[in-house]
User: Which sequence fits this backbone?
């Protein structure tokens, strides 16, 4: 039974109680329900931060219901669920926005963001405001905050040394489903394979794939290091999530409630970013302790190759005129 069917059942029961003079579920009805979906496992530190920093900051007026591990909606399906009114909030990947708004591919391009500081500056700038406006107008989804979740590197099972994109030829690299994600793998020089996040461990274990790309914090929380021999620090994507709410749900809130939600979202983003920055420092040592080889390849070679591939691709044709120059100047 889905949460929505359960809720309708409860409301129907409450009506029946009222009819015979018994107390109804008035307190539950009076709360603002926020149903949230995420792909991270409930054991992930980000789930704990969400429940504490966001859910805990909402107060008694809200009924926050988070679902983790893609148990409510599969990875990549959250935007449509929000648009259909089946989901209120989610931690979206920009690649999933790109499916509906091709212009968003400018911020899913590897090496466009120099680091997490540059990423934040871009989203806080007029560039970010323009991208957010596209989402609200074309998708009916509002971005509340953009937490940094780490820098993505390659984690490989084979022991082959990777120094340039040419070395990735023939490597079966798991990328999340979706054309935008798959093109990242292609641009890096690998053979991309679409696979849900929750299926990566088994695929690495069985040899269905040769590697995956994630921040080292995610590699640790999902225990990918158990079925990996090396981490290649390509630093190709400054990873982030779009902590978002449907515009219809947002508009149903009072100004005071909107402020509460926004303040809680800002608190969540700050806490997740702080944890990711801590992970950037600590997780490399952990990987080495587990016996993994951790090294930096020829980053200029990767950057030149990847950006050249994108410049010649169909994705670059969708970028708003002058936006890349504005990003580079920040």
Assistant:
């Amino acid at each position: 039974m889905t949460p929505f069917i359960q809720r309708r059942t409860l409301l129907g029961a409450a009506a029946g109680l009222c009819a015979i003079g018994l107390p109804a579920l008035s307190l539950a009805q009076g709360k603002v329900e926020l149903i949230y979906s995420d792909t991270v496992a409930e054991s992930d530190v980000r789930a704990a931060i969400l429940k504490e920093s966001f859910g805990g900051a909402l107060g008694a007026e809200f009924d926050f219901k988070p679902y983790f591990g893609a148990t409510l909606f599969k990875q990549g399906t959250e935007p449509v669920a929000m648009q259909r009114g089946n989901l209120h909030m989610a931690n979206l990947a920009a690649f999933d926005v790109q499916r509906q708004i091709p212009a968003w591919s400018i911020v899913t391009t590897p090496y466009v963001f120099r680091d997490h500081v540059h990423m934040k500056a871009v989203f806080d700038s007029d560039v970010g405001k323009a991208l957010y406006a596209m989402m609200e107008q074309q998708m009916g989804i509002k971005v509340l905050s953009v937490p940094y979740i780490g820098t993505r590197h390659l984690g490989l099972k084979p022991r082959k040394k990777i120094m340039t994109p040419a070395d990735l030829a023939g490597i079966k690299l798991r990328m999340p489903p979706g054309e935008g994600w798959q093109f990242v793998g292609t641009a890096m020089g690998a053979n991309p394979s679409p696979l849900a996040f929750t299926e990566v461990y088994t695929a690495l274990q069985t040899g269905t794939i040769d590697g995956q790309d994630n921040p080292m914090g995610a590699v640790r929380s999902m225990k990918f290091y158990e079925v990996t021999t090396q981490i290649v620090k390509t630093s190709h994507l400054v990873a982030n999530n779009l902590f978002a709410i449907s515009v219809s749900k947002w508009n149903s809130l009072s100004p005071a409630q909107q402020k509460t939600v926004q303040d809680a979202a800002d608190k969540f983003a700050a806490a997740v970013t702080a944890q990711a920055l801590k992970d950037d420092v600590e997780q490399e040592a952990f990987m080495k302790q587990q016996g993994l080889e951790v090294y930096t390849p020829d980053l200029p070679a990767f950057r030149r190759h990847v950006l050249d591939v994108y410049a010649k691709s169909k994705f670059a044709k969708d970028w708003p005129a002058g936006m890349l120059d504005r990003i580079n100047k920040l």
